[in-house]
């Protein structure tokens, strides 16, 4: 599915979770189920595209371990994807310079983030590896800036995709009032996340403008579909 549809599916899943919420009244459950079904029919979304189960809870999930000098800026790519799906990124710095990266959100959303972010991080690193400087320090600066530019382009594209998904949701006659459910879910996530005293993604200083620009161009061209992708895991070397 395309990214806008994927984001819309995420919203529909939240409606289904509300429809199965034990705290909801029978009338509320019936209303939210009807709204979800109507929106699915309008956008040709099937139950097979949804991930609804009792284990789809809000919490912390492991993304994985990131090592190397580019680990911090790679988190910007992960964060760009995570925010589109109402998830947040945090991490533990490990002895030796690596990072254990975690995602906070609903499990189904987290799984989408992991798939897309993993693909995009690999692509960013592969293309950044083509950047060559006059020495090791210059090469690092070029590649670091390239990945930062790539992340910013992905962030912009996913923000636009989320806007389209929101518009498709908000304009649908059957889901008027359901926006409150999504706001409630988002506020629940933000409130619990705010209680954590964690590192925050973003705020990376850009060292090389031309490399940053090339990274943005690469990010603007990158496929956001996770179907049929073969990740190239070529390692970055500062030589």
Give an overview in words.
By secondary structure, the protein is mainly α. The chain has two domains: 72 residues, no CATH class; 131 residues, no CATH class. 56% of the residues lie in helices and 10% in strands. The protein contains seven helices and three strands; from the N terminus they run H-H-E-H-E-E-H-H-H-H. Helix 1 packs antiparallel against helix 2, helix 1 crosses helix 5 and helix 3 packs across helix 4. The C terminus is likely disordered.
Quick recap of the structure?
The protein is mainly alpha-helical. It is built from seven helices and three strands.
The number of E-state strands comes to 3
Work out the strand percent. Answer: 5-15%
Mean pLDDT: 79
In terms of structural class, how would the helical and strand content be classed?
mainly alpha
Structure annotation, total helices: 7
Percentage of residues in helical conformation: 55-70%
Count up the domains. Answer: 2
Residue windows where pLDDT falls under 50 for at least 5 positions: 228-239
Question: What is the chain-wise order of helices and strands?
Answer: HHEHEEHHHH
The value of Rg in angstroms is 19 Å
Strand order of the largest sheet: 1-3-2
Question: Largest sheet at a glance?
Answer: 3 strands, antiparallel
Distance between the termini: 39 Å
Shape: elongated
